[in-house]
């Protein structure tokens, strides 16, 4: 089984959300406001919050989460060391299934990092 392209996955999800944006506008606006409030810098900076979000995405085995949060973490300058340390905590909290998704999360991070470097 090959690893999906997380760039393609996130583009596809974004396209697929178009109908929800128009037909469930209130829900989408509410989710957007929740996201903006939750990720706003406070006692924790945005990168730390994205690392937490990625760890939860790994523990919950959410492929879309891996793509979107890997992209954000690369943009925010998360180092490979920070990323791998976060994966260790995610695996600790989620066990074997999270270990399998940690490998996918690493692939997502690497893919977005290569794209950013190009």
Keywords:
118 residues; mainly alpha; AhpD-like; 82% helix; 0% strand; globular
Named CATH architecture: Up-down Bundle
Rounded to an integer, what's the Rg over CA atoms?
15 Å
Summed up, the domain count is 1
- CATH homologous group name: AhpD-like
Determine the CATH topology.
Answer: AhpD-like
The topology string of helices and strands comes to: HHHHHH
Mean pLDDT: 93
Q: Tally the helices.
A: 6
Helix content: over 70%
Could you explain how this protein is built, in words?
- The protein has 118 residues and is mainly α.
- The chain is 82% helix and 0% strand.
- The chain is built from six helices and no strands.
- Helix 4 packs antiparallel against helix 5.
- The mean pLDDT is 93.
Summarize the structure.
82% of the residues lie in helices and 0% in strands.
Fold topology:
Blueprint: H1 6-16, H2 18-23, H3 25-39, H4 46-59, H5 63-75, H6 80-117
Helix pairs in contact: 1-5, 4-5, 4-6, 5-6
């Amino acid at each position: 089984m090959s690893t999906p392209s997380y760039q393609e996955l996130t583009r596809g999800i974004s396209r697929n959300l178009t109908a929800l944006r128009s037909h469930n506008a209130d829900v989408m606006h509410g989710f957007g406001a929740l996201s903006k409030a939750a990720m706003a810098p406070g006692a924790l900076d945005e990168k730390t919050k994205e690392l937490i979000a990625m760890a939860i995405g790994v523990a919950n085995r959410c492929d879309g989460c891996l793509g979107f949060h890997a992209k954000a973490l690369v943009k925010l300058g998360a180092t490979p060391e920070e990323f791998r340390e976060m994966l260790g905590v995610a695996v600790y909290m989620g066990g074997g299934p999270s270990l399998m998704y940690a490998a996918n999360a690493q692939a997502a991070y690497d893919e977005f990092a290569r794209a950013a470097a190009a």
